[in-house]
Design brief:
291 residues, alpha+beta, three-stranded antiparallel sheet, two-stranded antiparallel ribbon, 6 helices, elongated, E3 ubiquitin-protein ligase, ubiquitin protein ligase activity, ubl conjugation pathway, EC 2.3.2.27
């Protein structure tokens, strides 16, 4: 410590000639020390106030920025909604004739459905089976083809739609496991099983819908690409196997989707058939077919 050394030098009698200079240096030390302490206090005070001011300014800036972004988002939403409204109005004006015809057709269909759903005799409305059964109203079923992505209502007059499916032999309920299929001497009908349930038919579907035409084109394309490839596929194309285009599950057939149709049975015809074909005659016919 230079200051301590100067204090010691000041007390030495041999350095009496340099005593005034040592005293002046010590005074300068004190003056510089006081100036330094004062400047540190001022700097600390100013830095503290400046930091507070900077925090306030930053907070105000962030608040203003958030407000500006919220306002910009609101204006953007208003602009998009105005554009959508203008497009809708333009589309409706462009296809005004189509909208008018659609509204007329929907009104006619609603009236027809109400007429069909209203039974002629209220007493027959709750009869489910028999010649006096009440009317049935089919529900509208709209499906999407996984190949062409076209939506279509399932109707007889529309294009046929199918489900990808897999049919295979099953022994889940067998009581005679390991029994061979005897093809010699008799015709085996896979739809009818022996009483011992040696083997049966299992049909499963992944539930994906296709147009019959789209599926046929897809299957032909798979066959063509398989012939051109060198490596062996994991499924047997000769047996009709293929992979579902969507979930890649193994399939070997398709199941046609049959639309629901309201059944209208004439009471007169039903009563006539009931008189000609009695229960005893029906039982005799079944026994004759079984024998």
């Amino acid at each position: 410590n230079i200051q301590m050394l100067l204090e010691k030098l000041k007390g030495i009698p041999q350095l009496e000639g340099q005593k005034d200079m040592i005293t002046w240096i010590l005074q300068m030390f004190d003056t510089v020390k006081r100036l330094r302490e004062k400047s540190c206090l001022i700097v600390a005070t100013t830095s503290g106030s400046e930091s507070i001011k900077n925090d306030e300014v930053t907070h105000d800036k962030e608040k203003a920025e958030r407000k500006r972004k919220a306002e910009a988002a609101r204006l953007h939403r208003q602009k998009i909604m105005a554009q959508m409204s203008a497009l809708q109005k333009n589309f409706i004006e462009t296809h005004k004739l189509m909208y008018d015809s659609t509204s007329e057709m929907s009104g006619k269909e609603d009236s027809i459905m109400e007429e069909e759903s209203t039974p002629a005799v209220s007493d027959y409305s709750r009869i489910a089976l028999g010649p006096k059964r009440g009317p049935t109203v089919t529900e509208k079923e709209v499906l999407t083809c996984i190949l062409c992505q076209e939506e279509q209502e399932v109707k007889i007059e529309n294009n046929a739609m199918v489900l990808s499916a897999c049919v295979q032999k099953s022994t889940a309920l067998t009581q005679n496991r390991g029994k061979p299929i005897e093809l010699s001497g008799e015709i085996v009908d896979p739809l009818f099983m022996d009483p011992d349930l040696a083997y049966g038919t299992y049909t499963g579907s992944c539930g994906h819908v296709m147009h019959a035409v789209c599926w046929q084109k897809y299957f032909e394309a798979v066959q063509l690409s398989s012939q051109q490839r060198i490596h062996v596929d994991l499924f047997d194309l000769e047996s009709g196997e293929y992979l579902c285009p969507l979930c890649k599950s193994l399939c070997n057939t398709v199941i046609p989707i049959i639309p629901l149709q309201p059944q209208r049975i004439s009471s007169e015809n039903t009563e006539a058939v009931g008189q000609l074909l009695t229960l005893e005659q029906w039982i005799q016919t079944v026994l004759a077919r079984i024998s």
